[in-house]
Amino acid sequence: MSPIPRLSEELSAGPARLRVDVFGSRPVEHVLDDMAFLDYRLADVRIAPAVTLAEPDIVWDQEAPRDISYDGSRMTFGGPWPAGPIQKVVVALLALRMEAVGLHPFHAAAVRYRDRTVLFLGGESNHGKSMGQIEACRRGAKLVSTETTVIDEAGRAVIGSRQPFIRKRTEGTERADKAAPDRAVEKFFGTMPDWEIHEEPSHVDVVIVPAIDGNFDPSSAELNAFERQFQTFHSVQNYFLLNELLAPGFPMPVVDTVALRRARAAFVRSFAERPYYFVRAATPQVLLDQVDRVL
Predict the structure, then answer these.
(1) Helices 284-294 and 129-138: crossing angle, nearest 10°?
(2) H/E element holding 20?
(3) The pLDDT of residue 30 is above 60
(4) Rounded to the nearest 5°, which phi and psi values hold at 55?
(5) Dihedral sign for Cα atoms in the order 33, 37, 39, 45
(6) pTM for the whole thing?
(7) Domain chopping of the chain, boundaries
């Protein structure tokens, strides 16, 4: 490997920073040509105008044998890799850097609805957060976030993704089991509604764990302390990809530690003091009828 990288690039999500160094003979303009997936998963991810970090968090040696490894602080790619796995690793490591500065990405959508910030949590089952968010916006809510809501230590939603679906999946992120992005919208709403954006950070007032299924009778139940923490822990762990294959035969390296998990669980315990409701419904419209009742 040459001592001088072909490219050094720094990515940012709020105050969190991540440096990627690429080595090899092939010219590289950017680590990733398309930032849509990163914005979808972590909100406003940007390429910094200059590199400020002294050491790289990700090293990619394109001339080495194909491999991936993690030493506890740095991820190393060897050989040819498509954009998909690179995207996933950037998400996981940038999520760790966000946690280090007190920002917690939640797999959740949020709206400002009836003077409250309502979080639709993608917990264990993840069935209905996007549809709940869209229906709330149809009823006049302002959008806080779609796929990801970033929450600070005080329990405020501070930033979030704004696209409800990822419309383009690159190699290494294919999912035949996922329906076409707009199919559920067409089924439940006809067309995607317009909405306004709620720009200011806001305290999360209530959390909804939705379950939309055409066979469900409507019901709602307030969750106890363990259930609240269990569902929330699922949501924040979603970003570390411990159950993912990056390519056939190449699992995502373990980026988590006992200390990080305990710190995360402590934050979850504090956050989960607010009201949580598990809501079953056959459609987003019925789901929001139930939410209106608990609000």
Answers:
(1) 80
(2) strand 16-23
(3) yes
(4) -130, 150
(5) negative
(6) 0.91
(7) 7-100, 103-294
